[in-house]
């Protein structure tokens, strides 16, 4: 029952956040979000092994925590599930934009999580708007470690302007060759 209630609450909050974005964007004609800036504590070291396909993906590791960001068109919105353990979703704001904040844990592996999701848009001119979002996830060894990262994630800056990153240097991998009929 708690998972169903949490999921229903999460969906309702997302609908309200997205509706709020539409209303807010009407007063911000021509705003395109190009990137984001996240300042992590000095113990975090960038992990360059993340390979993005259609978004800007970054990963940093520190003792007891990993932080990952996903800035693009197909970001995953927070959702409670039994696999995450106890879970709650709240509201916040990043640079004046509505944000959903999921806190969960411990999961079956003893990990705690924080997921901050900011729905945005990418204006392409002539009234064309594509969905865009910023997702920031922290996976932590302890609840205290994740709690300490919430204000860090919420202090991210959204950068307006033309995109400053490529969705993918090489694009998705090519499909496998088709078998020949010979």
TrEMBL record:
Keyword list, A-Z: Signal
Keyword Signal: yes
Region (Disordered): 163-182
Biased composition range(s): Pro residues: 171-182
Annotated signal peptide: 1-24
Protein name as it appears in the record: Uncharacterized protein
Biological source species: Croceicoccus ponticola
């Amino acid at each position: 029952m708690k998972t169903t209630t949490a999921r229903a609450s999460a969906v309702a909050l997302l609908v309200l956040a997205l509706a709020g974005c539409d209303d807010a964007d009407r007063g911000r004609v021509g705003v395109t979000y190009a990137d984001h800036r996240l300042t992590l504590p000095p113990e975090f070291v960038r992990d360059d092994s993340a390979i993005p396909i259609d978004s800007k993906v970054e990963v940093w590791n520190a003792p007891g925590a990993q932080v990952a960001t996903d800035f693009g068109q197909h970001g995953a919105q927070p959702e409670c599930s039994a696999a995450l353990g106890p879970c709650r979703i709240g509201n916040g704001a990043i640079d004046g934009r509505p944000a959903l904040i999921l806190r969960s844990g411990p999961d079956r592996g003893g990990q705690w999580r924080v997921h901050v999701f900011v729905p945005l848009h990418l204006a392409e001119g002539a009234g064309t708007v594509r969905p865009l979002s910023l997702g920031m996830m922290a996976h932590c060894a302890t609840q205290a470690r994740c709690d300490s990262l919430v204000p860090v994630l919420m202090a991210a800056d959204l950068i307006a302007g033309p995109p400053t990153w490529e969705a993918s240097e090489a694009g998705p991998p090519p499909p496998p060759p088709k078998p020949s009929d010979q």
